[in-house]
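User: two proteins, same treatment. go.

Assistant:
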Amino acid sequence: MTKKDPFMDDLADVVSRLTFLEIDQFVDAMFAKSETLPYTFNRAIHCNLKKREEIARNEVLNMSR
């Protein structure tokens, strides 16, 4: 397993404090860097949520056994 980058925790802390308007500005800034970056970011979040849903579903199934 790779070592966790502490920057990710710092980034998550900053993002957790953003307002809706600040998130909108962040997405605009991502588009300014790359036309595909916001879509890549969105896809990564979607995949992570699906993975977490599957883990939660498996935990519920294991608890019911």
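Protein 2:
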Amino acid sequence: MQSLNLSPVDQILNATSNKFDAEPDGCDALVIPTNAIAYGKPAFRVTDDEILLLNADGSVWDNYDMPEDGDVVAYIENLLSSIGL
């Protein structure tokens, strides 16, 4: 179970997930799907305020608000599943 007392970035960086790995990037966290189809490229950037869906070149494609329940890890896992990762 993830600690909802952590910031969104810290939730991602401290997550134990079979769907993604995470790397710090400045004050943000990059979400890297473990699915081979993602080619090891970040799919999301998580800030303390929003979740950004990234293009293959790292530019922002879309953004999402933080989940109301505060569980950023579960939300990211659901987003990854919804896009086939």
